[in-house]
Design goal:
globular; single chain; five-stranded mixed β-sheet; 15 strands; 7 helices; about 240 residues; about 30% strand; alpha+beta; eight-stranded mixed β-sheet
Length: about 240
């Protein structure tokens, strides 16, 4: 597992290096190809995916948002979103990253989510504690938390104005940040994180694993996660209005 962690970190560092030294205007163009996840593929999506494949293929199969499943006859499978928040990246909004979940025997056993905008990585392996590292220095970060949150996150909220109104009527402040894996992986920073829509492995598996010690409600088209027991209880009542 140590080698896998190093490879994921290496891939993210290579991606940062590409962004800083090799990024071209053409990389923002669409390839006219629809990725396995159903979204139109940007050239940059494929570039980042290739970096992950190069670094991880010796350790496991690849199941990625762009290429689908690559069978390397391994026991492990990496579930990858090579660019979480691609529209943010495209629009120079500093909230985008990468997501890698590791699956064995049908279960997620590790999650790695990088915030490329601030050059950090949060990860969790097996039942160990969550760790944060700087991708610039490849060193551990001691994260200081204030213990409370003022805003929530409602990913894809723009598609559900009725739910937005319900939350607003309950005086719940929320943002639509546009990078689901990042939001789920860092759910302890917010009052809650709500995602509604198609639950794709690439979007949710790594982030949910990293935050699996929190209160989580998940059904076929929704994920809700919070660190607050009282917020979780309140949401279970509010959801009846959805």
């Amino acid at each position: 597992m140590k080698n896998i962690k190093k490879r994921v970190i290496k891939a993210n560092i290579e991606i940062l290096d590409y962004i800083e030294k090799s990024l071209k205007k053409e990389d923002f163009k669409y390839t006219k190809q629809i990725g396995f996840g159903g979204d139109e593929t940007l050239k940059i999506d494929k570039i980042f995916e290739d970096i992950f494949i190069k670094n991880l293929k010796d350790y496991g199969n690849i199941f990625s948002e762009e290429c689908g499943f690559l069978d390397f006859k391994k026991e492990l499978t990496f579930i990858i979103d090579p660019l979480d928040g691609s529209n943010n990246f495209f629009s120079n909004i500093p909230y985008f990253g990468t997501s890698v979940a590791l699956k064995k025997d049908g279960k997620i056993i590790a999650g790695f989510v990088a915030n490329l905008a601030n050059k950090t990585l949060v990860y969790k392996i097996l039942n160990k504690k969550i760790k944060y590292i700087s991708l610039l220095r490849d060193k551990k970060i001691i994260k200081v938390e204030n213990g409370s949150s003022k805003v929530a996150v409602f990913e894809r909220g723009y598609k559900y104005p009725n739910i937005c109104k319900i939350l607003n009527d309950k005086e719940m402040k929320f943002r639509v940040l546009g990078a689901t894996a990042l939001s789920l992986a860092n759910a302890r920073d917010f009052t809650f994180v709500l995602f509604k829509g198609n639950l794709r492995e690439f979007d949710i598996d790594a982030g949910l694993f990293i935050s699996n010690d929190l209160y989580i409600k998940k059904d076929e088209d929704m994920v809700f996660i919070t660190k607050y027991k009282e917020v979780f209880s309140s949401f279970n009542e509010i959801i009846k209005q959805f």
